[in-house]
Amino acid sequence: MCKHIIRDNEMYLARFITSESENYDACAIAEKDEVSQIVLRDILAIFSQQGIRLVLVDKLALEAISRKNPPGLNLHFLSSQVVTTFATIANLKSPPDLENSLSDLQEVGFRVDILTGPGIILDVRHAHANANIPLHIVAERTGWWLHVVILYDIHGSFLWHGPATGVTTLGFPEDMLQYGSGGREGVLDWFDVRSSKLDDLEIEVPANTSEFLAETANSTFISCNYTRAKEFFDTYNDDTSGEALYFKAKVLQIIRLSKLVLESLEVPFWLSSGTCLGWFRQCDVIPYSKDVDIGVWIKHYHPGIIDAFVAKGFWLHSIFGRVNDSYELSFGYSGVKLDIFFFYEDSRGMWNGGTEFTSGQKYRYDFPKFQLCWTELMGIKVRVPCDTLSYIEANYGDQWFEPIKEWDWNKSPPNARTNGYWPELEWREVIQIFYPEAEDS
């Protein structure tokens, strides 16, 4: 019997030692697990003493917890990993003081580094006054790495983490970064936690590990360029009239309600057209645009979408096209129109359609292929095309920075192309207007 094998590990070893021919060193495994348990206890105790709560967010570990066969996580699993990742949640206005925790880690044999960088900017007034804050902690002991990603609360709405730039200063294996790799920021929704047993050690993990893992797979965040927004407002002034502020308040309400409706149907959407331009150019809403524009992949179309919007107080303004061709929905809400453009993909790229209601003329708006990233607009977590500049230039040309108040939807966009006509016999189906524009009030 090995001198250092502890009782809880005996059952664990029995699961892994299947025959003498496999030549497992039971003593070495048990001793390594004991060391791992001591190390993890040290880590959790050190951070807990400083009021810093750690949650296990390591993707491989959470996948192990989610598995039902073979059974989930144990200390040997973690000790066999090169890197194990935890998270802590912090307040952006008062970033955590990590000095004592890092000193304590060093005292128990860790090499430690803290990665700092600019925090997320949420206001054009702070575009040039963004102080560095702690973003990531990396620590190493006997070849085992700890990574703590700091998740900052944004408006109580979502959690943001910064990029892990410079993570290799201690020799950290950058290709094993799960959060902040490639200089990328990320966002997550708030999540509940639960206790989980790691052999005889209690740790906290996301309550719904499968949902958490799915979200982390699509969590890339791009910040709005508030330096550009400041330049725009310095050049063209910010409209702070009562009418403009009222419109912005209504846009905020419409985006929030749209998010509720579409997320309840599991339909992802993004800011499109003028609403996307407003975010990209001025980190705000274009006050003279008078509507809200969002995009949805046609593959995510849900037949209950109209009823769901109506149930939230919207009224159906118009339906153009068919689900398989140039589909577009418009709703009214408190005097502001919401346009939902459905996007298609073919050999020529990505596109959405439009229909001229007096003639049946069809239009096609072509875009370069794009992926979606998260961003923030007026405190709301929303999606935009990751390569937003290419998307904007396709729709508005290279003069997008200059405000244009006269805009013809089927002639002004440089990516607009005629795309045939709807046969007049089909107009009753493909051109449905329920309220004239003049009554949208």
TrEMBL record:
It is a single-pass membrane protein. This is Fukutin-like isoform X2. The gene is LOC106809981. Keywords: Membrane, Transmembrane, Transmembrane helix. It is found in: Membrane. Residues 266-302 form the LicD/FKTN/FKRP nucleotidyltransferase domain. It holds the Pfam family FKTN_N. Its main location: membrane. InterPro entries: FKTN/MNN4/W02B3.4-1, FKTN_N, LicD/FKTN/FKRP_NTP_transf. Residues 33-251 form the Ribitol-5-phosphate transferase FKTN N-terminal domain.
